[in-house]
Amino acid sequence: EAKAIGNNRLRVYKSEYGENASKRTKLLFDLKSALTNKQLSVVYQPQFRLHDKAISGVEVLVRWNHPEEGLIPPDVFIPLAEQHGLICEITDFVMQTAIRELTAADLLYRTVPRVSFNVSAADFNMANSPERFVKLLTALPGSWDVIELELTETSALLNLEGVRNVVNVLEERGVQVSLDDFGTGYSSLSTLRSLPIHEVKIDQSFIRDITQNAQDARLVKTIIAMAQALNLRVVAEGVESQQQAAYLSRAGCAEVQGYLYAKPMPLTSLQSFVKNISSAKARF
Ligand code: C2E
Ligand code: MG
Ligand code: MG
Ligand code: MG
Predict the structure, then answer these.
(1) Which of 78, 84, 152, 159 maximizes ligand 1 atoms within 8 Å of its Cβ, making it the mutation to test the pocket?
(2) For 148, which of 57, 66, 116, 263 could close a Cys bridge (C-beta 3.0–4.6 Å)?
(3) What pTM was computed for the model?
(4) Where is the EAL domain (predicted)?
(5) Are strands 199-202 and 55-66 parallel, antiparallel or unpaired?
(6) Which residue among 237, 259, 284 has the greatest number of ligand 1 atoms within 8 angstroms of its CB, and so is best to mutate?
(7) What's the pLDDT tens digit per position in 22-54?
(8) How far apart are alpha carbons 189 and 268 in whole angstroms?
(9) CA distance 70 to 68
(10) Ligand 1 within 6 A of CB of 46
């Protein structure tokens, strides 16, 4: 099964690169040139409103197509980039590329009402971090309220002060903030109090077993109720089955993202996907 193969591949990668220092050194070396050699690209994974299956946004995910190794998962090279000061360059590339591609295809605003970017702690570490984001977003042809930054407690929120400096500046322009992998960090609730958050994304590890595991199911229901009480949008990630979708719908989850609806795809596929969306709707 595809998922098992994917997970195994990731495990192999993680152990290979995690334990093999020389391999990691080579990968780091290669990553430095990947940016200049056009080996990085972005893909888009649509998110949907559960009640009418309309596209509510897309999440932008980076891809590295290594000339010899093939596709290297971001779970492998993003931590490497974070550890060695390369993440800002990657963030620049991802934001510039996605804004340019989506604008050229005229998908922003009308067809894709929200674009979410994953960001890391180092993106907030510099005194000029707010200006960096402002400069990147100046490329937008219209208002900035289509932009969302996804923060995780294990990365970006390591530097709460830096995040706050950036968010204070961007929030005035309409930029939204999402807590990614919600529930897996150490202080989800205190984070909600200390930042202007607009959305929580329930981590896929909680979604995976909701139809078999009563405790996971109750936990997810509780997160959704909490989000509603705090007026936060809630997105479930990693939705793979109709049964999971049905449970989430009953629990009042507003938005979903997962292989059941759409996999991450390059721009050209996204263009045909949105064209066919009305016929695609019939499938769900
Ligand atoms: P994430 O932000 O939590 O992204 C969701 C991950 O789940 C993506 O993996 C996506 O392809 C995958 N996914 C989506 N739907 C399903 C599903 O139904 N089932 C399963 N099993 N998986 C699903 P991906 O693209 O490999 O990215 C992994 C992580 O790498 C991301 O987790 C994010 O933390 C990080 N990442 C990806 N792109 C970027 C980036 O541009 N910048 C930064 N800083 N981090 C990134
Ligand atoms: Mg994310
Ligand atoms: Mg996530
Ligand atoms: Mg994640």
Answers:
(1) 78
(2) 116
(3) 0.93
(4) 24-278
(5) unpaired
(6) 237
(7) 888 999 999 999 999 999 999 999 999 999 999
(8) 39
(9) 6
(10) no
**Which neighbouring-strand residues pair with 182?**
202
Q: Transcribe 138-149 into DSSP letters.
A: TT-SS-GGGEEE
User: CA 187 from chain center: how many Å?
Assistant: 20
Flag whether the ipTM exceeds 0.90: yes
For ligand 1, say whether the CB of 258 is within 6 Å of any of its atoms: yes
Q: In which region does residue 106 sit, left (phi positive, over 0), alpha (psi from -120 to 50) or beta (all else)?
A: left
Q: Ligand 1, closest atom to CA 237?
A: 15
Type of residue found at 66: H
* Ligand 1 pocket check for 61: Cβ under 6 Å: yes
Which pair of structure tokens corresponds to residue 50? 């559960």
Q: What residues contact residue 242 under an 8 Å CB cut-off, 6+ apart?
A: 260
Q: What is the chain's alpha carbon radius of gyration, rounded to the nearest angstrom? A: 19
